[in-house]
Amino acid sequence: MKTDIPEHKVPLPGGRTESQNDVFVLGSTQSGLVSICIEGKVAESFGELISKWGPDSSPGKRKRFDYLVGLLGLEAEDLADIYYQLLHRTASAIIEAKRFHATTALMLVHSFSQEHMWFPEFRDFAGKLGVDADLNKIHFCGERSGVDLYVGWVVGNPAFLTR
């Protein structure tokens, strides 16, 4: 069984903006269901750094940040140099895993940048999750909020950049 949904929105607490995944896949394995949230990239960044939020952030933004940090089992004070999109995209994989009673969640960056733009930032984020990320590999980050979490970065075929 496999279901994939493009531009899949996952509600987050503390505001009206949802986490919009480029593709959401709900698949099955021998060990159960897996929730996969895919972020497609070419050269664009992961948006805003957490440090840009500042002390005057709205109560809704603070509520959302605290929720995401708790869901991922991270320390808020260690995330200033992390991009917010990586945080909420990874959390959305867990949120959907819980919604569909999946045992596993994967946040996958599918990048078509042949220069691996933004991979160092992804690797920094993966490091906060306790893994040393490599290109074209899926990494187990341990159990997070009752779900086995994986993250990965895969490089797409450059032939698809010209179609």
What's the helix and strand layout?
Layout lengths: L1 E9 L8 E11 L2 E10 L17 H14 L11 H16 L4 E8 L7 H10 L8 E8 L2 E9 L8
Parallel strand pairs: 3-4, 4-6
Antiparallel strand pairs: 1-2, 2-3, 5-6
Report on the structure:
This protein has 163 residues and is an alpha/beta fold. The protein has one domain. The protein has helices at 59-72, 84-99, 119-128, and strands at 2-10, 19-29, 32-41, 104-111, 137-144, 147-155. The chain has a six-stranded mixed sheet, with helices on one face. Helix 1 (59-72) crosses helix 2 (84-99). The chain is globular, with a radius of gyration of 15 Å.
Gist?
This protein has 163 residues and is an alpha/beta fold. It is 25% helix and 34% strand. The longest helix is centred in the middle third of the chain and has 16 residues, at 84-99.
The largest pleated sheet is described as: 6 strands, mixed
Which percent band covers the strand fraction? 25-35%
* Approximate helicity band: 10-25%
Q: What is the distance, rounded to the nearest whole angstrom, between the alpha carbons of the first and last residues?
A: 29 Å
> Helices and strands: which structural class?
alpha/beta
Shape: globular
Strand order of the largest sheet: 1-2-3-4-6-5
Poorly predicted regions:
none
Total domain modules? 1
Number of strands: 6
The radius of gyration is: 15 Å
Order of H and E elements: EEEHHEHEE
How many helices in DSSP terms?
Answer: 3
Average pLDDT number: 90
Q: Keywords for this structure?
A:
163 residues; alpha/beta; 3 helices; globular
